[in-house]
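MODEL INPUT / OUTPUT PAIR
PAIR INDEX: 1
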Amino acid sequence: MANEKYLEEKLRNRVKNLGGVALKFYSPFYTGMPDRIVLMPGGKAWFVELKSDGKKPSPRQAHVLGELQSLGFKIFVVDNDEKLNNCINEIANGTN
């Protein structure tokens, strides 16, 4: 069973190995923002919401994720190793 802390550490390390950064994202005046923003060379950016295995975003988080998607950002909701691998593969391929 994957927990959020485990997935977050794996995300940070794997993104770093690809030459990017997975920054903790916090917006004190706008709630529901994803946990991490992944920034890669070439100006590529992705938002990643990390959850413990089987957990889903709250209604507020789902609303904010939808807003970010409508602005054209790629969003990942990761709650297990398989979804993390899919996320990293997309980031590594530079698709967003």
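PAIR INDEX: 2
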Amino acid sequence: MDLILEKFNLVGFRLINDLAGHNIWLDRFMVFAADKMGYLLILSVLIIFWKKNYFKKVVFVSFGSAIIARFAFVAILRYLLYSPRPFLVLENINRLMNHSLESSFPSGHATFYFALAMGVYLYNKKAGHVYLILAGLVGFARIFVSVHWPLDVLAGALLGCFTAVFMNKLAKRF
């Protein structure tokens, strides 16, 4: 099983990262998506849902789950399971961003933004679809710029989504 997951990570990483380095505008956009676009997602949740009657709930679930998933669950998993970043173990990659050397599994960005997106989705399906696509773009960009493996992003997406669903159940209960 480990060999299958390793192969998936390597092939998936190469397919995505090999797209980098050919077009300066695409590279710049992906660096933006990997590093800064999330701030726009955070801000837009506050702006778009400000006047909605479910503002407090969507903020509690989306931000609460994003913060808990990223700063508790990701921290625990990274402590227990070290996974070196792709730029540390592969040669001939298109490295577009510098990053710390901490464990890459799971992706903190994917975890945070998928939790945020799922929190939105639980209260507004139409907007939620857009947020999930944009969270996916953040995750894709993290691979594109060489700081994550595909399984880092997939694990982060699942962790974020499950945390948002759990937080939503807590919000409804209390």
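PAIR 2 NOTE: The chain has a mean pLDDT of 95.
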